[in-house]
Write a structure and sequence with these properties.
Structural class: mainly alpha
Largest sheet: 3 strands, mixed
Distance between the termini: 52 Å
Radius of gyration: 26 Å
Length: 552
């Protein structure tokens, strides 16, 4: 089928499918500009920015679809051909009908003082997307990217930022360089219990460090009496300690179970029950303590919430580890947390510069739109002064946040293996939990281990989106609309010659990239459920003041 497709209908069908992908990208970007970028008249109707010739354009689009359909009918083409041409006809018709919106975007661009800057951001974004495409074939691209991030980002920030956050930037450089090592290591791994225990020990140590500093970010419920507030804080700290101890138990239990199985020739029953008990208890803790699945859960500091998620999923990850994966989990998690911290610090610095700018009154007046409101917040049990609660528009700098999220999602794919082939992930670890060969249960456990890094990056992205005071879906939709640039690349890389492995991998890459849209939606829903309702400081100065937390 592939050979027939590429030999006879290659030019026509690939042109139609490519036009469909490009039409979807342009259509979704126009939606993002209209909803989240441009400052349009809030009282204007949805049709205000559509062409006056929309009806004529719709007729032309329909005639194009009918013409192609007639050609396919005459050629007795498969039914899917009609679907192929329906998508580009619809999307490009919608794009043409929004010509006034495109003109508004062009007019806003012409009013910018530095016109090369948007082109530079877009060019850099596309280059990174192309690099991520190449990374599907060579994981070392991620090592180069981490090395560049370790050096370039600390250099690119302002001197004032470097003076304010020297330790943060040093940690960022160190952990980026550490994480860059893993995509240089071979995908095929043998059991190395020493590395398993080293990774578990690092995660356990980080848990004790978090427990030690937890009084800084564990908050009691507002308005609670002092005695009960202390009990609530002690309980939250106990949760961190329990999760840390579970990681320590898994660090010892996993290698002991492997040794006992190798010595006795079968999985000891007590070891199996212990592994399952530790895995289930640790996995359920973040779901029952703070997520949206627990309606009675109270609001938690965002850092406390992320730490509990990190430690809870560390236990099953360590149990299902056979080599360096647990060390990767530790380094990758720290890099995600540092990314969140740096993005928040950069946002606060930019907001501070805007507050000190001469155009302060203009900025504040522009903020007082229907997207913002003056509301009275209760802070520390008392009604505070009116606070400007803003939902800002997307800016060029938010493209960096979007591409970084996409980068970290891909690192979660390829950090320890090639997700296009489950065979590249070792299945020996599942024998710590099951006694007989069960392909369905083994695959479920293996997929659970593969998805754990995605749980982390989705939770961090959920907190980051709220920290940057963006509309709930804006950054997510931007990432969603641009990922198909990678899909178009893989569409043209599908091949029908060479070895079966090459053919299968090219098809797998295209399918994975095509399904990435659905997967990103799942990640967004997951972040919403895992993070729950958290408390986020509205400025760095408020981070140490428990009475000035803003609920998100």
């Amino acid at each position: 089928g592939l050979r027939y497709f590429q030999r006879y209908d290659w030019l026509l069908l690939r042109s139609i499918v490519s036009a469909g992908y490009l039409g979807w990208i342009v259509y979704s970007l126009l939606f993002i500009f209209r909803k989240y970028v441009l400052t349009l008249d809030p009282h204007a109707s949805a049709n205000a920015y559509r062409s006056s010739s929309s009806a004529l354009i719709g007729v032309v689009g329909g005639l194009v679809f009918v013409a192609f359909s007639a050609m396919f009918y005459r050629q007795q083409s498969p039914a899917m051909y009609y679907a192929y041409v329906a998508f580009p006809a619809y999307f490009w018709t919608e794009v043409a009908q929004q010509l006034p919106l495109i003109q508004q975007i062009a007019a806003d661009y012409m009013r910018t003082s530095v016109r090369w800057r948007p082109f530079a951001f877009v060019a850099a974004y596309v280059v990174v997307l192309e690099a991520l495409v190449y990374a599907y074939f060579d994981r070392r691209v991620y090592s180069v990217a981490f090395a560049l991030l370790a050096i370039a980002w600390p250099v690119a920030v302002s001197p004032k930022f470097r003076r304010r956050h020297p330790k943060l930037l040093v940690l960022w450089t160190c952990f980026c360089l550490l994480t860059s090592v893993f995509t240089l290591l071979p995908v095929e791994r043998n059991d190395h219990l020493g590395l398993v225990m080293a990774g578990g020990a690092l995660i356990t140590a980080s848990g004790f460090v978090a427990w030690h500093f937890s009084p800084r970010f564990v908050l009691p419920p507002p308005g609670m009496p002092v005695k009960q507030a202390r009990a609530a804080i002690a309980f939250d700290r106990l949760i961190i300690l329990i999760e840390t101890l579970l990681v320590g138990i898994a660090t010892v239990l996993g290698p002991l179970t492997s040794k006992a199985t190798e010595t006795r020739g079968h999985l000891p029953r007590m070891h199996q029950l212990a592994c399952w008990a530790v895995l289930i208890v640790s996995t359920l803790l973040p779901l029952l303590h703070g997520s949206r699945l627990n309606q009675a859960a109270r609001d938690q500091h965002f850092l406390y919430r992320l730490i509990t998620i990190y430690l809870a999923f560390a236990t099953p990850f360590v149990l299902l580890t056979v080599s360096y994966e647990s060390i990767f989990y530790f380094a990758y998690s720290i890099v995600l947390l540092l990314w969140l911290t740096i993005e928040r610090a950069l946002y606060f610095e930019r907001a501070e510069e805007q507050l000190l700018a001469p155009a302060e009154q203009t900025r504040l007046s522009s903020l007082l739109t229907p997207q913002t409101s003056l509301s009275s917040k209760k802070m520390g049990g008392k009604t505070g002064a009116p606070v400007l609660d803003t939902v800002r528009r997307l800016e060029l700098s938010d493209m960096r946040t979007g591409i970084m999220f996409l980068f970290f999602v891909n690192v979660a794919f390829f950090g320890t293996g090639n997700v296009a082939s489950l065979a590249s992930f070792s299945i020996e670890s599942v024998y710590r939990l099951i006694t007989v060969f069960d392909p369905f249960l083994m695959s479920a456990l293996l997929l659970f281990k593969i998805f754990i890094p995605f749980f982390l990056v989705s939770a961090v992205f959920g907190v980051l989106n709220r920290s940057l005071e963006l509309p709930p879906f804006s950054l997510f939709l931007f990432v969603l609309s641009t990922t198909d640039v990678m899909t178009v690349n893989f569409f043209f890389l599908v091949r029908d010659d060479g070895s079966w492995l090459d053919i299968g991998m090219s098809i797998s890459h295209f399918c994975i990239s095509g399904l990435f849209v659905l997967f990103t939606i799942v990640l967004f829903v997951l972040s919403h459920a895992l993070v729950g309702s958290v408390l986020i400081p509205s400025s760095p100065a408020q981070a140490s003041n428990k009475g000035t937390k803003k609920q998100r």
